[in-house]
Amino acid sequence: MQSLAWASWLIPLLLAWTLPWKGIALWKAAGNKHLWWFVALFLLNTLAILEIIYIFAFSKRKESTPEAA
User: Fold this and answer.
1) Spatial distance between the Cα atoms of 5 and 51, rounded to a whole number of angstroms
2) Which of 1, 3, 36, 59 has the most CB atoms in a 10 Å sphere around its CB?
3) At residue 11, does pLDDT exceed 80?
4) Contact at 8 Å (CB) between 32 and 59?
5) Are the C-beta atoms of 59 and 28 separated by less than 8 Å?
6) To the nearest whole percent, how much of the chain has pLDDT over 70?
7) Tens digit of pLDDT for each residue in 48-67?
8) pTM: predicted TM-score of the whole model, two decimal places
């Protein structure tokens, strides 16, 4: 039983690390209408590695050009 004692603090720690990143990444993917990113981020659990890559590399919105008046 002592060999599983580490799980009592490791699992909540991993959840506290992963959930905010997943939430931000899903929010950005939905806002940018990146359906396949949203599905991948939702289904895959990569301990926030994929989420961080998406947030910093792929979620940049394209600059919109000002409309001519």
Assistant:
1) 29
2) 59
3) yes
4) yes
5) yes
6) 86
7) 999 999 999 999 876 666 66
8) 0.77
What would the DSSP string read from start to end of the chain?
A: -GGGTTHHHHHHHHHHHHHHHHHHHHHHHHHTT-HHHHHHHHH---TTHHHHHIIIII-PPPPPPPPP-
Amino acid residing at 53? I
User: Rounded to whole angstroms, what are the CA distances from 54 to 12, 35, 40, 41, 59?
Assistant: 24, 13, 11, 9, 6
Average pLDDT over residues 18-45: 95
Distances, alpha carbon 56 to alpha carbons 24, 34, 36, 48, in Å: 11, 15, 17, 12
Q: How far, in Å, CA of 34 to CA of 29, rounded? A: 5
Mean of pLDDT values over 30-55: 94
